[in-house]
Amino acid sequence: MSQRFSFTPRLIALALALLLAVAGGAYFVGMRSGEGSQQSDTQSAAARQEPGASASALPVLANPNIREEVTPGTEGLDGPEPLADGSYDAMIFGPKAPIRSAEDVRNVHRRDPKDPFAIGAVDAPVVIAEFSDFECPYCSQWSNNTEPALIKEYVDRGLVRIEWNDMPVNGPAAEAAAQAGRAAAAQGKFDAFRRAFYQATADISGHPNFGLEDYVRIAKEAGVPNIEQFRQQASDGTYKEVIEQAKRYGASIGIQGTPAFVVGEQYISGAQPVDVFMRAVDQELQKAHQAS
């Protein structure tokens, strides 16, 4: 079932207050505008890192063997569940449930077995919620340079699930690309499309400003089976409203720039080096292990 939540001004204010809170196990959201930043603002339940502080300021992991000790997830490793007609729910967006208090932070993570925008086990100990924009060069950088190591070390081992959230902040081309991504998701090929897209932009400085024929070419590379259906859905506005809803959702919890990530209960802003993400993931794995 698609995630459909309305975001009233009161709820938006509440969510922003939640994400800006320091107490109650919440995390600090470093506001960013535009296409992204390579500076990191993170907050764990144990210690706060101020904006611009170095990654070394994060608390040192107490148990360096945590990746071997925590119980991995096993559900949904073969990919999302299709709908009854064999297609996939490309209308999914938003959190698992409304965010109304500090205790709801983890609702950002959907953990929906039908989610075509996620990779990794549904029951993985840690979820990374990614807020990205296809036109964002820093998102491309993260996808090509950082994510592969995280997939190998955590996702493939059932320790982490990564869930994409549309956050097209870079204008009409970004919104058009998001529609193309959902058209690929409807045929179960979102992740392949996303990877092929970012590989195609790896050597581009700035915004690629791709158009429909570029999306079609990338969809073919990604193995999208019905290209005519893809072409139609990528250009006819099928996903325009849900993408606007997804963007409003991201803004309602304080996301203004891309890429941005919620790693368990920690926030990371920008295309940070892989060690920043590994440190955060290991801390969240440790918390999950202690809670089990």
UniProtKB/TrEMBL annotation:
Gene3D superfamilies documented for this protein: Glutaredoxin
Leader sequence segment: none
Pfam families: DsbA_N, Thioredoxin_4
Keyword Membrane: no
Family (UniProt): Belongs to the thioredoxin family. DsbA subfamily.
Protein name per its UniProtKB record: Disulfide bond formation protein D
The UniProt record lists the keyword Hydrolase: no
Compositional bias (Polar residues): 35-46
Alphabetized UniProt keyword annotations: Disulfide bond, Oxidoreductase, Redox-active center, Signal
Natural source organism: Corynebacterium pelargi
GO MF annotation list: oxidoreductase activity
Domain of life: Bacteria
Gene: bdbD
